[in-house]
Protein backbone atom coordinates (compact mmCIF):
# COMPACT_ATOMS: atom_id res chain seq x y z
CA UNK A 1 0.00 0.00 0.00
CA UNK A 2 1.37 3.42 -0.96
CA UNK A 3 2.23 5.84 1.83
CA UNK A 4 -0.30 8.56 2.47
CA UNK A 5 1.04 12.07 2.87
CA UNK A 6 -0.26 14.88 4.96
CA UNK A 7 -1.31 16.71 1.78
CA UNK A 8 -3.70 13.89 0.87
CA UNK A 9 -6.00 14.66 3.79
CA UNK A 10 -5.03 18.19 4.83
CA UNK A 11 -7.00 21.33 3.92
CA UNK A 12 -4.57 24.24 3.70
CA UNK A 13 -5.44 27.63 5.12
CA UNK A 14 -3.34 30.74 4.63
CA UNK A 15 -2.64 32.86 7.73
CA UNK A 16 -5.21 35.40 6.55
CA UNK A 17 -7.85 32.68 5.97
CA UNK A 18 -7.14 31.06 9.32
CA UNK A 19 -7.56 34.36 11.14
CA UNK A 20 -10.99 34.81 9.58
CA UNK A 21 -12.29 31.58 11.16
CA UNK A 22 -14.21 31.74 14.43
CA UNK A 23 -12.92 29.77 17.45
CA UNK A 24 -15.64 27.14 17.02
CA UNK A 25 -14.74 26.72 13.32
CA UNK A 26 -11.08 26.31 14.21
CA UNK A 27 -11.92 23.68 16.84
CA UNK A 28 -14.14 21.83 14.40
CA UNK A 29 -11.36 21.84 11.79
CA UNK A 30 -8.82 20.47 14.26
CA UNK A 31 -11.11 17.72 15.51
CA UNK A 32 -12.19 16.59 12.04
CA UNK A 33 -8.58 16.48 10.85
CA UNK A 34 -7.51 14.54 13.91
CA UNK A 35 -10.24 11.98 13.43
CA UNK A 36 -9.30 11.63 9.77
CA UNK A 37 -5.73 10.81 10.82
CA UNK A 38 -6.93 8.23 13.33
CA UNK A 39 -9.31 6.57 10.87
CA UNK A 40 -6.64 6.28 8.17
CA UNK A 41 -4.10 4.95 10.63
CA UNK A 42 -6.62 2.38 11.87
CA UNK A 43 -7.02 0.84 8.40
CA UNK A 44 -3.28 0.44 7.91
CA UNK A 45 -2.02 3.56 6.15
CA UNK A 46 1.60 4.53 6.73
CA UNK A 47 2.59 8.14 7.47
CA UNK A 48 5.65 9.80 5.97
CA UNK A 49 7.20 11.28 9.05
CA UNK A 50 9.36 13.90 7.37
CA UNK A 51 6.43 15.36 5.42
CA UNK A 52 4.17 15.42 8.46
CA UNK A 53 6.77 17.21 10.49
CA UNK A 54 7.15 19.90 7.86
CA UNK A 55 3.45 20.68 8.22
CA UNK A 56 3.51 20.65 12.03
CA UNK A 57 4.13 24.38 12.25
CA UNK A 58 3.25 24.92 15.89
CA UNK A 59 5.14 23.35 18.75
CA UNK A 60 1.88 22.08 20.20
CA UNK A 61 1.00 20.09 17.08
CA UNK A 62 4.61 18.94 16.82
CA UNK A 63 4.50 17.66 20.42
CA UNK A 64 1.32 15.75 19.71
CA UNK A 65 2.93 14.16 16.67
CA UNK A 66 5.99 13.07 18.63
CA UNK A 67 3.78 11.59 21.33
CA UNK A 68 2.11 9.34 18.76
CA UNK A 69 5.51 7.71 18.17
CA UNK A 70 6.68 7.61 21.78
CA UNK A 71 3.45 6.06 23.13
CA UNK A 72 3.40 8.49 26.05
CA UNK A 73 -0.02 9.46 27.30
CA UNK A 74 0.23 12.94 28.78
CA UNK A 75 -3.40 14.11 28.76
CA UNK A 76 -5.54 12.62 31.53
CA UNK A 77 -9.25 12.84 32.32
CA UNK A 78 -9.68 14.38 35.74
CA UNK A 79 -13.01 12.58 36.18
CA UNK A 80 -12.16 8.92 35.60
CA UNK A 81 -8.35 8.93 35.32
CA UNK A 82 -8.27 7.56 31.77
CA UNK A 83 -5.32 8.96 29.82
CA UNK A 84 -4.79 9.81 26.15
CA UNK A 85 -1.88 10.49 23.81
CA UNK A 86 -3.57 13.54 22.27
CA UNK A 87 -5.70 16.35 23.49
CA UNK A 88 -8.57 15.92 21.04
CA UNK A 89 -9.42 12.32 22.03
CA UNK A 90 -9.44 13.56 25.61
CA UNK A 91 -11.96 16.24 24.59
CA UNK A 92 -14.17 13.60 22.97
CA UNK A 93 -13.89 11.41 26.05
CA UNK A 94 -14.84 14.22 28.42
CA UNK A 95 -18.15 14.53 26.58
CA UNK A 96 -19.11 11.09 27.89
CA UNK A 97 -19.07 12.67 31.35
CA UNK A 98 -20.67 16.01 30.46
CA UNK A 99 -23.16 14.69 27.90
CA UNK A 100 -22.16 17.52 25.55
CA UNK A 101 -23.13 16.99 21.89
CA UNK A 102 -21.91 19.83 19.68
CA UNK A 103 -22.39 18.30 16.21
CA UNK A 104 -25.99 18.83 15.09
CA UNK A 105 -27.83 17.35 12.10
CA UNK A 106 -29.18 20.16 9.93
CA UNK A 107 -32.19 18.05 8.90
CA UNK A 108 -33.60 16.74 12.17
CA UNK A 109 -31.53 18.68 14.75
CA UNK A 110 -30.32 15.52 16.49
CA UNK A 111 -26.96 16.17 18.17
CA UNK A 112 -23.84 14.00 18.51
CA UNK A 113 -20.56 14.07 20.39
CA UNK A 114 -18.37 13.21 17.35
CA UNK A 115 -18.44 14.40 13.73
CA UNK A 116 -18.00 10.83 12.48
CA UNK A 117 -21.16 9.71 14.29
CA UNK A 118 -23.01 12.63 12.72
CA UNK A 119 -21.85 11.50 9.26
CA UNK A 120 -23.22 8.01 9.86
CA UNK A 121 -26.48 9.49 11.12
CA UNK A 122 -26.96 11.54 7.95
CA UNK A 123 -27.24 8.29 6.00
CA UNK A 124 -30.69 7.83 7.62
CA UNK A 125 -31.92 10.88 5.69
CA UNK A 126 -30.24 10.01 2.39
CA UNK A 127 -31.15 6.31 2.54
CA UNK A 128 -27.69 5.50 1.23
CA UNK A 129 -26.45 1.96 1.95
CA UNK A 130 -23.08 1.65 0.23
CA UNK A 131 -21.90 -1.55 1.95
CA UNK A 132 -23.36 -4.65 0.29
CA UNK A 133 -23.12 -8.31 1.31
CA UNK A 134 -21.53 -10.30 -1.52
CA UNK A 135 -23.46 -13.44 -0.52
CA UNK A 136 -27.08 -12.30 -0.29
CA UNK A 137 -26.98 -8.74 -1.66
CA UNK A 138 -28.33 -7.08 1.47
CA UNK A 139 -27.00 -3.53 1.87
CA UNK A 140 -26.00 -1.60 4.97
CA UNK A 141 -25.26 1.99 5.90
CA UNK A 142 -22.14 1.19 7.94
CA UNK A 143 -19.24 -1.22 7.39
CA UNK A 144 -19.56 -2.47 10.97
CA UNK A 145 -23.18 -3.51 10.30
CA UNK A 146 -22.03 -5.42 7.21
CA UNK A 147 -19.34 -7.23 9.23
CA UNK A 148 -21.89 -8.25 11.86
CA UNK A 149 -24.32 -9.40 9.14
CA UNK A 150 -21.68 -11.61 7.48
CA UNK A 151 -21.54 -13.70 10.65
CA UNK A 152 -25.03 -14.97 9.77
CA UNK A 153 -23.51 -16.66 6.71
CA UNK A 154 -20.26 -17.77 8.34
CA UNK A 155 -21.78 -18.80 11.67
CA UNK A 156 -18.96 -16.97 13.41
CA UNK A 157 -19.60 -15.98 17.02
CA UNK A 158 -16.36 -14.36 18.18
CA UNK A 159 -17.53 -13.04 21.53
CA UNK A 160 -17.42 -15.81 24.13
CA UNK A 161 -18.53 -15.79 27.76
CA UNK A 162 -15.56 -16.81 29.93
CA UNK A 163 -17.90 -18.26 32.57
CA UNK A 164 -20.11 -20.62 30.56
CA UNK A 165 -18.54 -20.65 27.08
CA UNK A 166 -21.64 -19.34 25.29
CA UNK A 167 -20.67 -17.36 22.17
CA UNK A 168 -22.34 -14.41 20.45
CA UNK A 169 -22.09 -12.43 17.22
CA UNK A 170 -22.15 -9.03 18.95
CA UNK A 171 -20.27 -7.64 21.94
CA UNK A 172 -23.45 -5.97 23.18
CA UNK A 173 -25.17 -9.35 23.33
CA UNK A 174 -22.27 -10.78 25.33
CA UNK A 175 -22.42 -7.88 27.81
CA UNK A 176 -26.15 -8.42 28.34
CA UNK A 177 -25.64 -12.19 28.69
CA UNK A 178 -23.03 -11.66 31.43
CA UNK A 179 -25.77 -10.19 33.61
CA UNK A 180 -27.20 -13.71 33.96
CA UNK A 181 -24.06 -14.58 35.92
CA UNK A 182 -23.79 -11.31 37.84
CA UNK A 183 -27.51 -10.95 38.51
CA UNK A 184 -27.32 -7.32 37.43
CA UNK A 185 -30.60 -5.81 36.22
CA UNK A 186 -29.87 -2.16 35.42
CA UNK A 187 -33.11 -1.37 33.55
CA UNK A 188 -35.94 -0.62 35.96
CA UNK A 189 -39.60 0.05 35.17
CA UNK A 190 -40.53 3.49 36.51
CA UNK A 191 -44.14 2.37 37.04
CA UNK A 192 -43.86 -0.88 38.99
CA UNK A 193 -40.16 -1.08 39.87
CA UNK A 194 -39.53 -4.40 38.11
CA UNK A 195 -35.95 -4.66 36.83
CA UNK A 196 -34.56 -6.27 33.65
CA UNK A 197 -31.19 -7.27 32.23
CA UNK A 198 -31.72 -5.52 28.88
CA UNK A 199 -33.40 -2.38 27.61
CA UNK A 200 -35.43 -4.37 25.05
CA UNK A 201 -36.98 -6.49 27.81
CA UNK A 202 -37.89 -3.34 29.75
CA UNK A 203 -39.43 -1.78 26.64
CA UNK A 204 -41.62 -4.82 26.04
CA UNK A 205 -42.60 -4.95 29.71
CA UNK A 206 -43.76 -1.32 29.61
CA UNK A 207 -46.39 -2.28 27.06
CA UNK A 208 -48.23 -4.16 29.80
CA UNK A 209 -48.85 -0.80 31.50
CA UNK A 210 -50.02 1.03 28.37
CA UNK A 211 -52.85 0.58 25.90
CA UNK A 212 -50.59 0.98 22.86
CA UNK A 213 -51.69 -0.94 19.78
CA UNK A 214 -48.85 -1.94 17.51
CA UNK A 215 -50.85 -3.38 14.66
CA UNK A 216 -52.93 -1.26 12.31
CA UNK A 217 -56.26 -2.33 10.89
CA UNK A 218 -56.52 -1.94 7.11
CA UNK A 219 -60.02 -1.80 5.64
CA UNK A 220 -59.29 -1.74 1.90
CA UNK A 221 -57.76 -5.21 1.73
CA UNK A 222 -55.16 -3.89 -0.70
CA UNK A 223 -51.80 -5.68 -0.61
CA UNK A 224 -49.41 -3.69 -2.79
CA UNK A 225 -46.15 -5.27 -1.60
CA UNK A 226 -45.44 -8.48 -3.50
CA UNK A 227 -42.67 -11.04 -3.04
CA UNK A 228 -40.69 -11.35 -6.28
CA UNK A 229 -39.89 -15.00 -5.56
CA UNK A 230 -43.27 -16.57 -4.76
CA UNK A 231 -45.76 -13.81 -5.60
CA UNK A 232 -47.30 -13.58 -2.13
CA UNK A 233 -48.58 -10.05 -1.38
CA UNK A 234 -48.62 -8.04 1.85
CA UNK A 235 -50.25 -4.92 3.26
CA UNK A 236 -47.02 -3.49 4.70
CA UNK A 237 -43.44 -3.46 3.41
CA UNK A 238 -42.24 -4.63 6.84
CA UNK A 239 -44.35 -7.81 6.49
CA UNK A 240 -42.81 -8.43 3.08
CA UNK A 241 -39.30 -8.08 4.52
CA UNK A 242 -40.07 -10.65 7.22
CA UNK A 243 -41.56 -12.97 4.61
CA UNK A 244 -38.42 -12.83 2.45
CA UNK A 245 -36.49 -14.42 5.30
CA UNK A 246 -38.34 -17.67 4.47
CA UNK A 247 -36.51 -17.74 1.12
CA UNK A 248 -33.08 -16.64 2.39
CA UNK A 249 -33.09 -18.70 5.58
CA UNK A 250 -31.67 -15.70 7.38
CA UNK A 251 -32.27 -15.48 11.13
CA UNK A 252 -30.97 -12.06 12.11
CA UNK A 253 -32.60 -11.82 15.53
CA UNK A 254 -30.38 -13.39 18.17
CA UNK A 255 -31.22 -14.10 21.79
CA UNK A 256 -28.62 -12.25 23.83
CA UNK A 257 -28.93 -14.74 26.69
CA UNK A 258 -28.61 -18.12 24.97
CA UNK A 259 -27.51 -17.24 21.40
CA UNK A 260 -30.50 -18.87 19.65
CA UNK A 261 -31.42 -17.18 16.35
CA UNK A 262 -34.86 -16.28 15.02
CA UNK A 263 -36.28 -15.06 11.72
CA UNK A 264 -38.71 -12.55 13.25
CA UNK A 265 -38.47 -10.18 16.22
CA UNK A 266 -41.84 -11.42 17.50
CA UNK A 267 -40.46 -14.97 17.67
CA UNK A 268 -37.45 -13.70 19.60
CA UNK A 269 -39.74 -11.76 21.93
CA UNK A 270 -41.76 -14.86 22.80
CA UNK A 271 -38.58 -16.90 23.27
CA UNK A 272 -37.02 -14.34 25.64
CA UNK A 273 -39.88 -14.86 28.08
CA UNK A 274 -38.44 -18.32 28.76
CA UNK A 275 -35.42 -16.56 30.31
CA UNK A 276 -37.23 -13.69 32.02
CA UNK A 277 -40.24 -15.69 33.19
CA UNK A 278 -42.36 -12.73 32.13
CA UNK A 279 -46.06 -13.46 31.62
CA UNK A 280 -47.63 -10.14 30.66
CA UNK A 281 -51.06 -11.44 29.62
CA UNK A 282 -53.42 -11.83 32.60
CA UNK A 283 -56.91 -13.31 32.79
CA UNK A 284 -59.18 -10.67 34.32
CA UNK A 285 -61.50 -13.36 35.71
CA UNK A 286 -59.13 -15.64 37.61
CA UNK A 287 -55.79 -13.78 37.55
CA UNK A 288 -53.86 -16.53 35.78
CA UNK A 289 -51.02 -15.13 33.64
CA UNK A 290 -49.59 -16.26 30.31
CA UNK A 291 -46.52 -15.57 28.18
CA UNK A 292 -48.47 -15.37 24.90
CA UNK A 293 -51.77 -13.67 24.02
CA UNK A 294 -52.92 -16.77 22.13
CA UNK A 295 -52.59 -18.87 25.31
CA UNK A 296 -54.70 -16.33 27.18
CA UNK A 297 -57.41 -16.44 24.48
CA UNK A 298 -57.61 -20.23 24.71
CA UNK A 299 -57.71 -20.08 28.51
CA UNK A 300 -60.63 -17.61 28.50
CA UNK A 301 -62.77 -20.30 26.87
CA UNK A 302 -62.73 -22.17 30.18
CA UNK A 303 -64.74 -19.31 31.65
CA UNK A 304 -66.97 -18.64 28.63
CA UNK A 305 -67.48 -22.27 27.62
CA UNK A 306 -66.79 -21.23 24.04
CA UNK A 307 -65.80 -24.05 21.68
CA UNK A 308 -65.35 -22.43 18.26
CA UNK A 309 -63.76 -25.41 16.49
CA UNK A 310 -66.48 -27.80 15.34
CA UNK A 311 -66.17 -31.14 13.62
CA UNK A 312 -68.12 -31.03 10.34
CA UNK A 313 -68.82 -34.77 10.48
CA UNK A 314 -70.26 -35.24 13.97
CA UNK A 315 -70.77 -31.71 15.30
CA UNK A 316 -68.51 -32.20 18.31
CA UNK A 317 -66.93 -28.87 19.27
CA UNK A 318 -63.55 -28.03 20.83
CA UNK A 319 -61.81 -25.06 22.43
CA UNK A 320 -58.50 -25.60 20.60
CA UNK A 321 -57.79 -26.30 16.92
CA UNK A 322 -55.25 -28.94 17.95
CA UNK A 323 -57.98 -30.82 19.84
CA UNK A 324 -60.16 -30.75 16.73
CA UNK A 325 -57.32 -32.11 14.59
CA UNK A 326 -56.82 -35.03 16.96
CA UNK A 327 -60.58 -35.70 17.04
CA UNK A 328 -60.80 -35.84 13.23
CA UNK A 329 -58.50 -38.86 13.25
CA UNK A 330 -61.35 -40.86 14.80
CA UNK A 331 -63.26 -40.37 11.53
CA UNK A 332 -60.34 -40.72 9.13
CA UNK A 333 -58.59 -43.54 10.96
CA UNK A 334 -55.31 -41.66 10.49
CA UNK A 335 -52.51 -42.75 12.81
CA UNK A 336 -49.49 -40.63 11.91
CA UNK A 337 -47.29 -41.56 14.88
CA UNK A 338 -45.53 -44.90 14.28
CA UNK A 339 -43.32 -46.91 16.63
CA UNK A 340 -39.95 -47.37 14.93
CA UNK A 341 -39.41 -50.70 16.74
CA UNK A 342 -42.61 -52.65 16.08
CA UNK A 343 -44.45 -50.50 13.53
CA UNK A 344 -47.59 -49.98 15.60
CA UNK A 345 -49.27 -46.64 14.81
CA UNK A 346 -51.10 -44.14 17.02
CA UNK A 347 -53.30 -41.08 16.60
CA UNK A 348 -51.52 -39.02 19.27
CA UNK A 349 -47.81 -38.53 20.07
CA UNK A 350 -48.53 -39.04 23.78
CA UNK A 351 -49.96 -42.51 23.04
CA UNK A 352 -46.82 -43.40 21.08
CA UNK A 353 -44.66 -42.19 23.95
CA UNK A 354 -46.49 -44.42 26.42
CA UNK A 355 -46.30 -47.39 24.02
CA UNK A 356 -42.53 -47.00 23.60
CA UNK A 357 -42.13 -47.71 27.31
CA UNK A 358 -43.09 -51.33 26.55
CA UNK A 359 -39.86 -51.62 24.55
CA UNK A 360 -37.67 -49.55 26.84
CA UNK A 361 -39.07 -50.89 30.12
CA UNK A 362 -39.28 -47.32 31.42
CA UNK A 363 -41.66 -46.78 34.33
CA UNK A 364 -41.40 -43.12 35.31
CA UNK A 365 -44.38 -42.96 37.69
CA UNK A 366 -43.45 -44.28 41.13
CA UNK A 367 -45.61 -44.76 44.22
CA UNK A 368 -44.08 -42.76 47.08
CA UNK A 369 -45.53 -45.20 49.66
CA UNK A 370 -44.31 -48.58 48.41
CA UNK A 371 -41.92 -47.69 45.56
CA UNK A 372 -43.79 -49.63 42.87
CA UNK A 373 -43.39 -48.00 39.43
CA UNK A 374 -45.74 -47.73 36.45
CA UNK A 375 -45.60 -46.76 32.78
CA UNK A 376 -48.82 -44.68 32.93
CA UNK A 377 -50.04 -42.07 35.40
CA UNK A 378 -53.52 -43.62 35.30
CA UNK A 379 -52.07 -46.92 36.52
CA UNK A 380 -50.32 -45.15 39.39
CA UNK A 381 -53.56 -43.40 40.41
CA UNK A 382 -55.42 -46.73 40.43
CA UNK A 383 -52.62 -48.35 42.45
CA UNK A 384 -52.73 -45.58 45.11
CA UNK A 385 -56.26 -46.66 46.00
CA UNK A 386 -54.76 -49.82 47.54
CA UNK A 387 -53.14 -47.56 50.14
CA UNK A 388 -56.06 -45.14 50.55
CA UNK A 389 -58.80 -47.77 50.41
CA UNK A 390 -60.77 -45.57 48.01
CA UNK A 391 -63.24 -47.43 45.75
CA UNK A 392 -65.00 -44.93 43.52
CA UNK A 393 -66.65 -47.41 41.11
CA UNK A 394 -69.97 -48.79 42.44
CA UNK A 395 -72.14 -51.54 41.00
CA UNK A 396 -75.62 -50.16 40.34
CA UNK A 397 -77.19 -53.57 41.00
CA UNK A 398 -75.69 -54.68 44.30
CA UNK A 399 -73.85 -51.62 45.57
CA UNK A 400 -70.46 -53.28 45.76
CA UNK A 401 -67.56 -50.87 45.12
CA UNK A 402 -64.23 -51.28 43.31
CA UNK A 403 -60.94 -49.40 42.99
CA UNK A 404 -60.85 -49.54 39.18
CA UNK A 405 -63.34 -49.37 36.32
CA UNK A 406 -62.11 -52.67 34.83
CA UNK A 407 -62.75 -54.49 38.12
CA UNK A 408 -66.31 -53.19 38.12
CA UNK A 409 -66.83 -54.44 34.53
CA UNK A 410 -65.64 -57.93 35.48
CA UNK A 411 -67.94 -57.91 38.52
CA UNK A 412 -70.99 -57.06 36.43
CA UNK A 413 -70.58 -60.38 34.65
CA UNK A 414 -71.76 -62.13 37.82
CA UNK A 415 -75.13 -60.41 37.46
CA UNK A 416 -75.58 -61.16 33.76
CA UNK A 417 -74.39 -64.77 34.11
CA UNK A 418 -72.06 -64.13 31.17
CA UNK A 419 -68.89 -66.12 31.07
CA UNK A 420 -65.66 -64.11 31.16
CA UNK A 421 -64.27 -65.55 27.92
CA UNK A 422 -67.44 -64.65 26.05
CA UNK A 423 -67.37 -61.18 27.63
CA UNK A 424 -63.77 -60.68 26.55
CA UNK A 425 -64.61 -61.77 23.02
CA UNK A 426 -67.45 -59.26 22.89
CA UNK A 427 -65.11 -56.51 24.10
CA UNK A 428 -62.56 -57.36 21.41
CA UNK A 429 -65.22 -57.32 18.70
CA UNK A 430 -66.59 -53.98 19.86
How does CATH name the architecture of the domain at 6-104? 2-Layer Sandwich
Structure class:
mainly alpha
> What general form does the structure show?
elongated
Indicate the CATH topology of the domain at 6-104: Double Stranded RNA Binding Domain
Stretches where pLDDT falls below 50 for ≥5 residues? Answer: 48-67, 69-74, 212-218, 426-430
- CATH level 1 class label of the domain at 6-104: Alpha Beta
Count of strand segments: 24
The Rg value, from CA coordinates, equals 36 Å
Can you give the mean pLDDT? 76
Going across the biggest sheet, name each strand in turn.
1-2
Determine the number of helices (DSSP H or I, runs of at least 4 residues). 18
Q: What portion of residues is helical?
A: 40-55%
Beta-strand level of the residues, as a percent range?
5-15%
Largest sheet: 2 strands, antiparallel
Q: State the end-to-end distance.
A: 88 Å
Please characterize this protein's 3D structure:
This protein is mainly α. Among the domains are: 6-104, Double Stranded RNA Binding Domain (2-Layer Sandwich); 365-429, 2-Layer Sandwich (Double Stranded RNA Binding Domain), CATH 3.30.160.60. 46% of the residues lie in helices and 11% in strands. It contains 18 helices and 24 strands. The strands form twelve sheets. The protein has a two-stranded antiparallel sheet. The radius of gyration is 36 Å and the shape is elongated. The termini are far apart. Residues 48-67, 69-74, 212-218 and 426-430 have low confidence and may be disordered.
Amino acid sequence: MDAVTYDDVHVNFTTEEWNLLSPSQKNLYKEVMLETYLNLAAIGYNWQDHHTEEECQSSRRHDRHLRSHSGKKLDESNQCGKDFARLSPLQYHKRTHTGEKIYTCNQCSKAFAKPSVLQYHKIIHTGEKPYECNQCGKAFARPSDLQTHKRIHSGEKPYECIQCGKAFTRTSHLHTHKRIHTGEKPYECNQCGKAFTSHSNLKRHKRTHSDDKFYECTHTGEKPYKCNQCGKAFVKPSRLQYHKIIHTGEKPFECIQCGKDFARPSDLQRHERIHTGEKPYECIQCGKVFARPSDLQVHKRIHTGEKPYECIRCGNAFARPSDLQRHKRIHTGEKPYTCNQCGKAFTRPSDLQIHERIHSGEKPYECIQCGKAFARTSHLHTHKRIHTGKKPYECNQCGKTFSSHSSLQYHKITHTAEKPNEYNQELSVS
